[in-house]
Task: structure prediction
Amino acid sequence: MVKQVTPEEVAQRLQRGEEVTVIDVRENREVVAGKIPGAMNIPLGQLALRKSELDKDKKYVITCQSGNRSKAACGLLEALGYEVEDMIGGMNNWSNETE
Result:
């Protein structure tokens, strides 16, 4: 089962300066409203095609709008051998800065 992480935990890691690689799997039109600073945007439908952009030595935090697509993305990436964490509740639960 994929490890889950709260938006607060992700924000704390970022504030501490930890290397956190966030992948936002929302569609481009959704990301325009704001994303976690530094997050990569790879829409869920493009994830398998763009996996070469990811590094298997890194751990990724996956987010979407509400948590459904990130769960699917985590399943896909985990099956491909990536280490992932699912951000619970997605951007709906993110109360920190966005870019």
Summary: The first strand starts at residue 3 and ends at 5. The radius of gyration is 12 Å.
